[in-house]
Design goal:
48% strand; 11 strands; seven-stranded mixed beta sheet; mainly beta
């Protein structure tokens, strides 16, 4: 199994920055890591809206994908030695307010489709005040 725990959310003013972290743990993480086949991603869900893809990164970091809405402001990264992924968010806007979720999948695809991710964290709230 894989457990994902997000941290780093909070309240920030418009134009501010936040860095979200996602730590992966569980027996399956080691085997996926040894296979170099463990993509991590970030999604968000605003109140009353569907879950939205933000960014994904392959195990090696050689493949990334971003949603058009955030590609110029958000950066995804990972440190495999820590089994962790990060989302650096800059120039935040009130419309970025949402619960942010970390997700992972076995494989090298950096898919934007939520249904292709096997494991999900509990989410961390990000609120951007105007």
């Amino acid at each position: 199994q894989v457990q994902l725990v997000e941290s780093g959310g909070g309240l920030v003013q418009t134009g501010g920055s936040l860095r979200l972290s996602c730590a992966a743990s569980g027996g399956a993480v080691r085997s996926f890591t040894m296979a170099r086949s463990f993509t991590m991603a970030w999604f968000r869900q605003a109140s009353g809206k569907e879950r939205e893809f933000l960014a994904a990164i392959s195990w090696s970091g050689g493949k990334t994908s971003y949603a058009d809405s955030v590609k110029d402001r958000f950066t995804i990264s990972r440190v495999n030695a820590k089994n962790s992924a990060y989302l650096e968010m800059n120039s935040l806007k009130p419309e970025d307010t949402a619960v942010y979720y970390c997700a992972s999948r076995v494989g090298v695809s950096v898919s934007p489709l939520p249904g292709e991710y096997n494991y999900w964290g509990q989410g961390t709230q990000v609120t951007v005040s105007s």
